[in-house]
Hints:
Layout: H1 3-6, E1 9-17, E2 23-31, E3 34-41, E4 49-55, H2 60-70, E5 80-86, E6 91-96, H3 98-110, H4 133-149, E7 158-164, E8 167-174, H5 177-190, E9 199-202, H6 208-217, E10 221-224, H7 230-238, E11 242-245, E12 253-254
Amino acid sequence: MSTETTTGLSKVEVIRIGETKVGQAATEYVPAECEFNLSIGHPKVRTRFETTLFCAPHRLKTLVVGWLVGEGVLETEEEFNAIETNLDTLDVHVTVSFDAAARLAARAISGPVGRLSPPDTSRRADSSLTLTPDAVMKHAAAFKRLFLGLRSSERMCYLAAFARGDEIMSYGEGFHRVNALYRALGELVIARVATPGRIALMNFGLTKEMTVRLARAGACLAISAAPPSSAAIEAANNAYLCIATTAIGSQLTVYSAPWRIL
């Protein structure tokens, strides 16, 4: 696998057609995407879960670990043990705790063919975290500085981050929104930082799929640059997850769990 690919970009040959309608050969960098084979389990659990994941190989380990959180495989950071990746064969082997592997095996057996049944997870966020409107805007400004401070090669289309207090603890970027979230989540878990009670920040709006995955991680507040979908708002309210946007000037719009914004 080339160096360009492992940075999240892949060089391809293209034809550029200008005003003269004459095509010229050129090279261009486009988002890299590969199909990785995931094997997840524990040595003492006979059944290993096998699946595939399409993603860019850029920061692959954090993305896969974040995916495990979003899919409800990992309930705590201690349940992640190790990960081995082979970029030549596109194989990823993940070792989780015995309990996590046993739950995963049961979900694989009871779910549809080739899919997992939904995880049996209760609401993970409590009602203790509240912020003032000024604090929310301060987080949004810090996130913007983070994005503008990244090297151009890392400044991909979508960026997500997680914060605690006034500190941004992790970030993830990608050409797919959910992958940006996964990378930011994976950074926390690999660093042995608990995910519940964190503040999520992103330069995109949330869908229901992404909101459910944030809820599984126990996020309390999501500050985004675009409005969420109606289904995302419903899921967020059920999870005590407050979604707020700062997209229009200095205006703050709260879509769910408004009691978190004082």
